[in-house]
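Tutorial, part two.
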Amino acid sequence: MNTPARVSSMPLERLWHGTEFLETSRLRAVGADDIRNLLRLGPVQFVIANISDPLYWVPLEERYTFWKNELDPHLVPLNNGVRPEDFPDAYCYFASEWSSTEGKPVILVCEKCH
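Running the prediction step on this input gives:
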């Protein structure tokens, strides 16, 4: 892979950073309470997946701002059927926890739907 891959379908089957595929796997869907608990426990690496875009790795120092201002108001509750137009600005996120290398931050992938 020479140029960063772009998201072509969701749900994602694998993660990449720049031009490198990562050894990760989806563990579970997460909701707001899960995310709050993970943020209390330590660093969380948010990754935004949006069709036709490369993955966006939110800088760790911006994780709380991203959670509060972007993800929390647009997060789809677990086990809930929704329409993006039911959310502010007509988009929403489905969040999932992914495995990460030991000692690395927890990875939370936020798949954007609009």
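The CA atoms of residues 27 and 107 lie 10 Å apart. In part three we will examine how such features are distributed along the chain.
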